[in-house]
Write a structure and sequence with these properties.
The chain has about 450 residues and is mostly helical. The chain contains 21 helices and two strands. A hairpin with a 4-residue loop joins β1 and β2 (about 35). The chain is globular.
Length: about 450
C-alpha cells in the first residue's frame, strides 16, 4: 500500500512538472480562443475543438508530426545535436544562475561565458552592419545565435537596467525561445529569427526611428523580432487549413501561424515571469502590442499594410510623436526585417533563398505523398529557385522596400535596394530561359500562382 501511494505521488508530480513547463494553456471563454499555447499538441485545447487527444503535434488524418517534418535520419547510437544544444543551454542557465544570484551589478554579458569571446565578440561589435553574416555568427556561438545576439541588443539599448529585468529570467526566456524554434526546418528556425532581430536592430538605428522611438517601443520591437515565428511547423497556413489542422480550426483560418507565434511568445513570457514585476495593466498592454506586431507579418495582409503605408507617405501625415504612428512604423519595420533576405549581399541572400525553397519543396513532396493539391511554389518539378525568387522580389519585396525608402531615405535604404536589384539580376541570369532562345523580347512575368510571395508560404 505504501509503495503504491509513493508511485501515485511521483506520477502526480511528473504530470504537474510537465504541465508547468510544456503544456501550460489558459482558455479564455469570452472569445472562445486559447489565450496562449505552449505546445502544438496540447490535449485540452484539441478537445475544445473536437480532435482526438492521442496525436500530439500532428494532423489527425495524415499523421504528420510537424516537429520532425524536416528532420534527417540520424545514425544509430548517435546523440542528436538538438539534445547536445539543450545540455549546453541548461549548463549555461545554471552558470548564469550561480553568477547572478546575489550579484545584481555583475556585467550581464559575462553569462555568455565561452560563446562571448574571440570572433563572436568581434562580430557583435559590428552587429549594426547590413553585411552581418548570421550563419557565421551562429557557428561561432555554437548554435546559440538568437540567445547571444538578442541578449547583447537588450544590453546595448540599456533595456535590462531600464525595465529592471532579472537577468536569470531574461536568459531563461531567450533559451526557451531558441529551443522552441524547430531547427530541423531549413528556413523557419532560430537562425532566421536571429537574422530578423539583427535586421530590426539596423532599422531601429535609422535616424527617424532612433530619435522618436521610446524604450518600450525598442523592447517590443526586439521581442517581436525574436519570437515572430516561434514554434513554426515548417508548413504554411494553406497546408494547415486544407488538412484541417486543429490550429486552423482554433484560429478560424485567420492568421493561423501568426496567432500561434504570438500566443506561444506570451506563454513563454508568463512561464518565465520575465515581466511579472511590472503592473498587470502594463503587462497586458505589452502582450497585446507584441501580438499586433507579430500579426503584421501575415503576408496575406501585405497589401492592406502597404496601402496604408503608401497613403501616409503620400499625405505626409506620419507623426512619430504619436504612439499609434510609432507602432505602425514598428509593424512596417518588422515586415521589412522578416522578408529582407533578397536585400542582403548575394552570398547571404542566395543561402536564404536555397533554404526557403528547400522548405517549400519538402512541403510539396508531403502534399504529393498524401494526394493533396500541391501549394503554389511547392512543386519542385514546375518551379526553380530562380523563378520563385524573381516572383517574390517583383511582387512583394520591391513594392515594400520602395515605400520604406520613401519613408527613410538613408544610405541603408539605398544599399538594400541596390542589393535587391543585383540579386534579381543574378537570379534572372540563372533561369533556363536565359540561355535559350532570345528571339522574343523579355517581359515581366504576369501575376500568377508562381509569383505568390515567399511569405505566403511562411504564413
Amino acid at each position: 500500500m505504501g509503495i503504491a501511494l509513493i508511485w501515485s505521488v511521483i506520477a502526480i508530480l511528473v504530470r504537474w512538472i510537465f504541465y508547468k513547463r510544456r503544456g501550460a494553456i489558459s482558455y479564455d471563454s469570452s472569445d472562445q480562443t486559447a489565450l496562449y499555447i505552449r505546445m502544438l499538441g496540447d490535449v485540452r485545447v484539441r478537445s475544445q475543438v473536437g480532435f482526438q487527444p492521442d496525436r500530439r503535434g500532428s494532423h489527425p488524418y495524415l499523421g504528420i508530426d510537424f516537429r520532425t517534418l524536416h528532420a534527417h535520419a540520424e545514425s544509430t547510437g548517435s546523440i542528436p545535436a538538438r539534445r547536445i544544444r539543450r545540455l549546453f543551454s541548461f549548463q549555461r542557465h545554471l552558470l548564469s544562475s550561480r553568477f547572478l544570484r546575489g550579484a545584481p551589478h555583475l556585467n550581464p554579458l559575462h553569462i555568455l561565458d565561452e560563446d562571448y569571446c574571440g570572433q563572436a565578440k568581434c562580430m557583435l561589435e559590428k552587429v549594426g552592419s547590413w553585411n552581418f553574416d548570421i550563419f557565421l555568427f551562429d557557428r561561432l556561438t555554437n548554435g546559440n545565435s538568437l540567445v547571444t545576439l538578442t541578449l547583447y541588443l537588450l544590453s546595448h539599448y540599456g533595456l535590462i537596467e531600464l525595465f529592471q529585468l532579472d537577468m536569470v529570467k531574461v536568459h531563461r526566456f531567450l533559451v526557451l525561445v531558441q529551443e522552441d524554434y524547430h531547427n530541423h526546418n531549413p528556413y523557419h528556425n532560430a537562425v532566421h529569427a536571429a537574422d530578423v532581430t539583427q535586421a530590426m536592430h539596423c532599422y531601429l538605428k535609422e535616424p527617424k526611428l532612433a530619435k522618436s522611438l521610446t524604450s518600450c517601443d525598442i523592447l517590443l520591437g526586439l521581442l517581436a523580432a525574436a519570437t515572430h515565428d516561434l514554434d513554426h511547423p515548417g508548413v504554411n497556413q494553406p497546408f494547415l487549413i486544407k488538412t484541417n489542422h486543429y490550429l486552423a480550426v482554433l484560429y478560424r483560418n485567420t492568421s493561423v501561424l501568426e496567432n500561434h507565434h504570438w500566443r506561444s511568445a506570451v506563454g513563454l513570457l508568463r512561464e518565465t515571469e520575465l515581466l511579472s514585476h511590472l503592473p498587470a495593466e502594463d503587462r497586458l498592454t505589452m502582450e497585446r502590442q507584441l501580438g499586433s506586431l507579430i500579426l503584421a507579418t501575415d503576408i496575406s495582409r501585405q497589401n492592406e499594410y502597404l496601402s496604408k503605408f503608401r497613403t501616409h507617405l503620400d499625405q505626409e501625415d506620419l507623426c512619430l510623436g504619436n504612439a499609434s504612428h510609432r507602432h505602425f512604423i514598428l509593424q512596417m519595420a518588422l515586415k521589412c526585417a522578416d522578408i529582407c533576405n533578397p536585400c542582403r549581399p548575394w552570398e547571404l541572400s542566395k543561402q536564404w533563398s536555397e533554404k526557403v525553397t528547400e522548405e517549400f519543396f519538402h512541403q510539396g513532396d508531403i502534399e504529393k505523398k498524401h494526394k493533396l493539391e500541391v501549394s503554389p511554389l511547392c512543386d519542385s518539378e514546375n518551379n526553380s529557385i530562380a523563378d520563385v525568387q524573381i516572383g517574390f522580389m517583383t511582387y512583394v519585396v520591391e513594392p515594400l522596400f520602395a515605400e520604406w525608402a520613401r519613408f527613410s531615405d538613408t544610405r541603408l535604404s539605398q544599399t538594400m535596394l541596390g542589393h535587391l536589384c543585383l540579386n534579381k539580376a543574378s537570379w534572372n541570369a540563372m533561369q533556363p530561359e536565359a540561355s535559350g532562345s532570345s528571339e522574343e523580347p523579355e517581359s515581366e512575368p504576369e501575376p500568377s500562382s508562381r509569383a505568390l510571395p515567399q511569405g505566403s508560404l511562411q504564413s
